[in-house]
Fold this sequence. Notes:
Its EC number is 2.7.4.25. The chain has helices at residues 16-27, 34-47, 55-64, 92-102, 105-119, 131-135, 149-160, 168-184, 206-220; strands spanning 5-9, 30-33, 67-70, 77-80, 83-84, 124-128, 141-146, 197-200. By secondary structure, the protein is of the alpha/beta class. It has a 5-stranded parallel β-sheet, sandwiched between helices. A 3-stranded antiparallel β-sheet has the order 3-4-5, covered by helices on one side. The structure holds cytidine-5'-monophosphate (C5P).
Amino acid sequence: ADKINVAIDGPAGAGKSTVARMVAQKLSYIYVDTGAMYRAVTWYMIRKDIMPEDHDNVLQTVRNMVIELIPGEEVQKVIINGEDVTPHIRSLQVSGMVSQYAKIESIRTRLSQLQREMALGKGVVMDGRDIGTTVLPDAEVKIFMTASVKERALRRYKELKDAEQVTLEQLENDIAQRDLLDQSREISPLRRADDSILLDTTSMDIVQVVETIVSHCRSYA
Ligand code: C5P
């Protein structure tokens, strides 16, 4: 069958990356985690002390940045100017700041362009916030994955618990706050594409979600 592109969007902590990776594996497609790209840029900006308000500096820096994505079995690596930044991008500091940088036009333009290039050859499963609406509006299959804030916080909690000191309540607040910022920004906000399939995963397990998406992909071709 001909290869297609699959866009998976949704709010923070809906389980998009786990699911997208598994879907890609089943279809022998390439998985692209666009959130990791925004996180990597955020980490780099924080380390260079470049504040999101400093638009000129942000623009210069993002223009000159060399960004590489290396697909992997478990996690996709993000390399910025030759440096593997992957170990830093899931920290609470980056999660707390990423939406501030992700709303900046110069950053979105650069990253969207890279994302489109990666999808040119088809056979890509890409997850993010604006893939179905803006990055790949022609993706053959579009999924909008959600779950209640409580359930999403709980999933994140289980994932993070060992690594960082954080309460469930704190995570619930972080997630709700990030959703609000992502939905209300001016450029390509988090929004369900009209032609996407809505998947509420609150009471589904990962395997069910993956099966559902894969069957949509198979029935397309
Ligand atoms: O998916 P993840 O939670 O890693 O994304 C981190 C942040 O990156 C999001 O909260 C959002 O601010 C930003 N993002 C975005 N557009 C995407 C992917 C992520 O604005 N396509």
